[in-house]
What we know:
Blueprint: H1 2-16, E1 21-23, E2 26-28, H2 36-58, H3 63-76, H4 78-91, H5 108-114, E3 119-120, E4 123-124, H6 127-144, H7 162-173, H8 181-222, H9 229-245
Helix pairs in contact: 1-3, 2-4, 2-6, 3-4, 3-6, 6-8, 7-8, 8-9
Amino acid sequence: SGSKLREVFDKINNLLSGKPVQTEGQTVSVTQHPQGLEFVCYKLAEKFVKHGEGEVSFHRDSAFPIAVVLSGIWELHPRVGDIFLAHLHKKCPYSVPFYPARKEGTSVEEYQRMLGYEVHDSKVEEQDHFLKRMSGMIRLYAAIIQLRWPYGNKQGAHPHGLSYGWRWLAQMLNLEPLADVTAMLLLDFLEVCGNALMKQYGIQFWKTMFFIQKSYIPRIEAVTSSGQMGCLSRLKNFVQKCLQAEEIPLPKGILTPSFWRT
């Protein structure tokens, strides 16, 4: 509910502002240790990324409540936003977007980690699990860039707004596509913030959608094997439907004004 989100936001904001906060039966404050604030900023940013790769990857709609809280915190405490991006880029290089190249002397294990895979005891995680985690983090990022905390001061610019999403999309389309990953990331990104980008960039956005359909999807097809076509087919259908309707649907789970009255 909206009231529950406000509670969560106020608690985090109070903690970062140096006020004493009640948690698990005890009172804590960042002023209790010289590095208290830095530690809390670090752990909080890490926690938001974990929500992306965990919660959002399983419950896609949860990207919006998590993102709106982070957006508001980022506005008031920019350090948290900076550290969040650092954690996000390390866990999901595709959020830069960046496809790390394997350098000479890098072990397979180390390279898998650079690509975002979890490696435990020389065992690399399953591809499906990897894709799910990356999807969750990209969806969270795509939600953050379009949301403002509704009770904040709207005078300033969004700390990490839609222009970053526009840049992400442009850079993504300048990279050589990867099988599986590229189609999924583009679809996730467009589903979550395509509507907001369409409203902001109008004709330029539609030119980009045409480019994806005519030039970029065939390039993804060229590197995709017959067993990996699922996500590519969904991307194709989504782009085609949007171009035909000349409209990008609002993302499922977006927070409406009525949500904040709950």
